[in-house]
Amino acid sequence: MAAGLGRLERTQAYRPRLGIRRAYNAVATGIGLVAIAIGLAMLAWLLIETGLKAVGWLDWQFITSFDSRFPERAGAKAAIYGTAWVMAFTLLFSLPIGVMAAIYLEEYAPEGWLKGFIQINIANLASVPSIIYGLLGLQVFVRWMELGRSVLAGALTLALLVLPIIVVATQEALRSVPPSIRDASYALGATRWQTIRHHLLPYALPGILTGNILAASRAIGESAPLITIGALTYVPFTPQGPLDRFTVLPIQIFNWTSRAQADFQHVAAAGIVVLLGILLLMNSGAILIRELMRRRY
Amino acid sequence: MTELGIRAPAPHPAPEAAEHPQPAARFRPKEEIALEAVNLSLWYGKKRALTNVSLAIPKNRVTALIGPSGCGKSTLLRCFNRMNDLIPGVRIEGTVRYHGVDIYAKNVDPVEVRRRIGMVFQKPNPFPKSIYENVAFGARVNGYRGNLDELVERCLRRAALWDEVKDDLKKSGLALSGGQQQRLCIARALANDPDVILMDEPCSALDPIATLKIEDLMRELAEQYTIVIVTHNMQQAARVSDYTAFLLTDERTPGQLIEYAPTQELFTHPKDRRTEDYIRGRFG
What we know:
The complex is a heterodimer of chains A (297) and B (284).
Chain A: H1 18-54, H2 60-64, H3 77-108, H4 113-126, H5 130-144, H6 151-175, H7 179-187, H8 192-220, H9 224-229, H10 249-257, H11 263-292
Chain B: E1 33-44, E2 47-58, E3 62-66, H1 73-79, E4 90-98, E5 101-102, H2 110-116, E6 117-120, H3 131-141, H4 148-158, H5 162-165, H6 178-190, E7 196-200, H7 208-221, E8 226-230, H8 234-240, E9 243-248, E10 256-262, H9 263-268, H10 273-279
Parallel strand pairs in B: 3-8, 3-9, 6-7, 7-8
Antiparallel strand pairs in B: 1-2, 1-4, 4-5, 9-10
Helix pairs in contact in B: 3-4, 3-6, 4-6, 6-7
């Protein structure tokens, strides 16, 4: 192949071995393709399998009815409402705390061992199994704070779970604002807070929102910590306030899959499709925000 | 000194000797002094960047800081408005006086220092906001009580940018060309009604025509403002400045002031051989 360019006397010191290099390249490409194909195929299989099972079961009646002993009358209304309540309160707690914590760490905290220590432990917290948060929530929120097995207790537990994710995402968003912007602002006599308020927060906002939505989509699929604090599995009502008892979609789905009648597998599939739909919507929202609000410096 | 410009190992000043400024650096302009570094030393962590710099900058003049890369000229510039305070691990000895007031004194707020002593950076760094908001920002955060529209127009006119942008003040500052962006940054600094404007290689990212415009602007601004400019470009220093300071980092002493003189004199009759070597292009 090298003959294509003719022979060059000076290049004798090199052994190009173009054939072998090209072969390695092809192998690497092939491995990558196979890897992504496996991932996509598994996902497609799950989606199609669940989708087919849900056909005929996912209808208006399913969305607007409470759970029932009879598969054809069972619905996800209580779980959808419960999920909405819990998520709203989760974000209400975790978003401001997470964002302010990230601002403190990025903009105010002096460099040193303490900051490093906190930083490492935030990363550690993000990888703690969610059931541990459930146990913590049970003790602290349900028992000590006597919130009972309520929406509030569930939301606080999930807020703890997603807090590290929000802190890290917000820190990254703040870090992506170039230092030259900080310099410009400080050099004009702005205080730290004015710099944060007028520049860093607005420019980092898309990143912060994206991080929060992704954190929320992690929380929305959690069942273990909520089961631990004692969320209900059979709920014939929607929560009317933050201190009411509740169930959420993943718990409802789990409950359906463990019932004896075969038809409940279809009901569960319909529930899964609803949950996936909500997740898809949230993630598309995150992508949309990122694209629409992207800035250049 | 040989023909090739390689200096024979000259007797280095001993570290103690560095406590006393270089003879050619003792010059002090016989004018009103706006800013004065007094025996200023600076460390980034354990690394020293400035050694006992004493430099008096006269009011309403353009003073240029020149020297090879790493000589400490930008560091010195950033000491004048306490921008180095923002870098973790910086330690300063000596002080800077602004019209006789120690700007590093405990009761002085760096925010107030930076309002009086503005800064323009090497790479134009407008905020990703409208032209209007870019100029108005400093005035807003510092509680300007006059008419903002008038202020924005006045500053853009003074920065010789008004005619080019007056019809679309709502346009993003980033939509401007590099030279226009840098003039926007100058206008933005003017909106704080500063006394001194520090410029850190303001033309190094610009083409020659944009550079000339900024240089003209500096000469004009010098009628009302004290300007300190760091530059790599000796022609630029010779063209725009009234006084020039030459800084150098050598093996023993990082960031020392070697020579300070009226620009004409420094470029035609340098007193220190190191200054001469540098301006003749023998190193750096």
